[in-house]
Amino acid sequence: QVQLVESAGGWVQAGGSLRLSCAASGGTFSSYAMGWFRQAPGKERELVAAISWGGFTTYAADSVKGRFTISRDNAKNTVYLQMSSLKPEDTAVYYCAVRRGMPVRGTGYDYWGQGTQVTVSS
């Protein structure tokens, strides 16, 4: 059974940085895309960033471009989200997800993590 386990999020002041990680297990993840999503209270879940298995294709939401970087370590079946210059509007529950094939911008992913809270204070 596929499991995705995210690292703990946390609280950070605006302008600070935080790195999230997500380890996948219970399957073979070659040719799987990995992504990060977030959901703030009262809002829909949205894509933050996604990356193909080889790392050659990446997507990022316009709101995080230049501030967040997604990467992955296939030997560890782990995806990372490095977040810098954090803003209060980045406050949300962050979820990692995987899907077979190429990354997509929507929520069409096969497996999801449990989510981790990130809070950015002004």
Describe this structure as you would to a colleague.
The structure is a single chain. This protein starts with a strand and ends with a strand. The strands form two sheets. Strands 2, 4, 5, 6, 9, 10 and 11 form a seven-stranded mixed sheet that branches. The protein has a four-stranded antiparallel sheet with strand order 1-3-8-7, with no helix packed on it. Helices cover 0% and strands 51% of the residues. It is globular. With 122 residues, it is an all-beta fold. The chain has strands spanning 3-6, 10-13, 18-25, 32-39, 46-51, 58-60, 68-73, 78-83, 92-100, 111-112, 116-121.
Blueprint of the fold:
Elements: E1 3-6, E2 10-13, E3 18-25, E4 32-39, E5 46-51, E6 58-60, E7 68-73, E8 78-83, E9 92-100, E10 111-112, E11 116-121
Parallel strand pairs: 2-11
Antiparallel strand pairs: 1-3, 3-8, 4-5, 4-9, 5-6, 7-8, 9-10, 9-11
